[in-house]
Amino acid sequence: MPVRSCGGAGSGVGALTNALRRTGVSGMGGVELSEAAVFASLGGIGFQHLTIGRGAEARLVVDGLAGGLSLRPEVVALALARLGARSTLQLRPDEDEAESLLAVDSPWEEGRVIWLDRASLPHDPLPKGYQRAICHLVGVAAVSVDEVLLDDRSDRLLPFDPFRLRQTRALCAIGGNPLLTVGPGESRPARAVAGDLLGALASGMRAHLDAPIGNRGVLGIRQLAARIRDPGHASSWRRCFGRGAGLFHAHAALYRFVEESAGPGLSRGIFADALVELGASLNLPLIQEQAKRWRPIEAAWIELAEAALPLDTPGLGAARLLLADRQVRLRAEGLDSSEFLATSAEKLVAIARSMESAFPIDARTLAFLHADLAGRLEALAVAEAEAGREFLALAPAPGPSGERRIKPR
Q: Are 45 and 12 in contact (CB under 8 A)?
């Protein structure tokens, strides 16, 4: 099977995996580098939610990666070191210099990734209010005078006008227009790499279970449940978003971010894939078995996302179908589906506007729906806390200097 050159998992994981593959970085034992291994190198799963903006432009953001909302350069560089790859970060705060640097041809053995403003992507924009909030990592496959070919979740490279790319980079909250060049580093024993990746997953899980900030980790899942269920909560959904377009966008965000993370189900499935791969590499069958605990959790996140946009509710059901279709078409057709992407975006805007004059759910029914969503979140918090503790009980403890103590076969 040929090595995939573009597409794959969202939230930058697929783009980073592809950039590494193109440069010859392999997985443990010389096999093809997997998205699950790259995901593990980044720390695995987490949870974060926050509301950005105020008033009519208040928006919900949900993230399921260990590092939070953005794969920032320092996080990616550390992940690459765990994989045995190398990286070089170049910052050019001046936009002309940044554009010129990107236009310079890179050696064949190097791959490049950059950060854009997620909300401003012309092929997959987010609603007004999200701009400058989400930093999004994409791969750079080729650069010419007329266009830049980007690797961003689609099975086809996406052509980007250089001027539009410049604007989208400038809106990214990571300053300096970062360009990260990646490539193969010094060869490391497969067992050492696997041990480091398992250690990264364990560290990410500890942070997930013990996050001290209320909107993060398992505690953050419970806090989001309280905000959805209780209209008297100081930061409740109905206080922040009202019963109009803002609340519609909150429901759509819960669906969008759960389904469009590094994998459906808020990345819990790709986390399970990582457990299987690392357990096999380290001859730790109980770690492999742990994956079975996370498959139902992945399914429960998907069910939560779908419940946020019930198909039998006018407007909300139509939005769910549009968002799902957009994701499928973008992945399969790239910008060959640009007409559909544009018209579906217009339809989503029209649905949001219609919510201002006539929200399709009365107050009583909305209370029941929110109670259901909150109950699902609370059940997920319990399931993730239990499964997370089981995983940490099985994962080898760190040694005195931070290295993993993996028993020999």
A: no
Mean pLDDT over each residue of the chain, to the nearest integer? 92
Residue 118 is classified by DSSP as G
- Closest by alpha carbon to 83, among 204, 201, 197? 197
- Provide the token pair at 266: 């808020």
Burial class of residue 289, CB neighbours in 10 A (0-12, 13-18, 19+): middle
Strand (E) positions, 305-348? none
Angular region, 27: left φ>0, alpha ψ -120 to 50, beta rest: beta
Helix, strand, coil content of the chain in percent (nearest 5): 55, 15, 35
Share of the chain above pLDDT 90, in %: 83
3-state secondary structure (DSSP) of residue 4: coil
The single residue listed with the structure tokens 């059940």 is 379
Taking the model in full, what pTM does it have?
0.94
pLDDT digits (tens, 9 = 90+) for 223-263: 999 999 998 888 899 999 999 999 999 999 999 999 998 98
pLDDT at 407: 39
Longest dimension (CA), the chain: 66
Distance CA 293, CA 262 (A): 19
Q: Which residue pairs from 120-126 have beta carbons closer than 8 angstroms and sit at least 24 positions apart in sequence?
A: 120/167, 120/168, 120/171, 121/152, 121/168, 122/160, 122/164, 122/168, 123/152, 123/154, 123/158, 123/330, 123/334, 123/335, 123/338, 123/341, 124/152, 124/153, 124/326, 124/330, 124/341, 125/345
Region class of 3: left (phi > 0), else alpha (psi between -120 and 50), else beta: beta
DSSP 179-198: EEEEEE-S---HHHHHHHHH
